[in-house]
Amino acid sequence: MAEIHNQTRTKRITITKTKEIRIKERKNEKEERSWGGSRRKDDEEEKKMEEEEEEEKEEEKDKKKVEQEVRSRQNEITKNHKY
Hints:
Layout: H1 2-33, H2 37-80
């Protein structure tokens, strides 16, 4: 008797879990379809991240340019230096 009760209980639990999963999937699909609030927030966050990445790339380029200038000046100094 207890075994039958446990089996029906586990069936109920699995059914409710699958229903919850389906509901979550439907909500996600609705959010993806609509260009509503959460989707816009995600887009804004993506834009901010892209802008930050671009700024970092520009900073790296500037650093490389400065390093090259320093190297070239050092090379000129060593070439012009008389022993």
